[in-house]
Amino acid sequence: MSKVRLDKFLADANFGTRSHVKTLIKHGFIKVNSEVIKNPSFSFDPLKEKVFYNDQLISYEEEAVFLINKPKDYICSNIDELYPSILNLLPSELFKKLKIVGRLDVDTTGTLLITTNGKLVNYFTHPKNSINKTYFVKVNHKITPAMVEAVKRPIDIGKGEFSLPCELEIISDDSAKITLSEGKYHEIKRIFHAFNLEVLELDRLNIDKYSYTNYNLKQGEYYKFNEEELNDILSLIGG
What we know:
It contains six helices and 16 strands. By secondary structure, it is an alpha+beta fold. Helix 1 packs across helix 2 (18-26). The mean pLDDT is 92.
């Protein structure tokens, strides 16, 4: 575990904003081990050292990121509804802390990130960051080369909405890979519907560089990021 700043540690532990926890530190309310620390930028290893607020131990909860190969008939929700929550496939002790990065439809499979870090969720889902996502698609009729060129421009997908330009790579007559950087409701299905094609299978291969294929995950299997991978992905948000 790398060292963290004391003010960041307290903010992540829900003691308030960075400015609020800096005030707590500067007024001598915080100890690391037995020493009062008044420097908000003080760095320490939370796995090896203990932090106290008014002599009460602040428990350290390690951040976690999971990559799961989502199977069909699971929903990207924190609660069970008509279908079970995807969180049921992850460690039960983390259930209340986990946040799902975006959504996959109940009948869509593939790469899904799940984390304890809300800022990471915001990073991957905010449109301004233009995170590429690639899907394998199988449809009911032939995909034409003309469609490959057409999706490079905005497509009218109905309800007054247009897709952003995306990339389409034909694999066979009725299957392809499509890469896009946004996630409107049922967007891929609506893009193909604009060409009178029905999506029969949809599998997300990757989110940015993260893919279930990197870990040979079967549907329903997950992988917990190790320390190096965790630090790498958290660096995207300055963590």
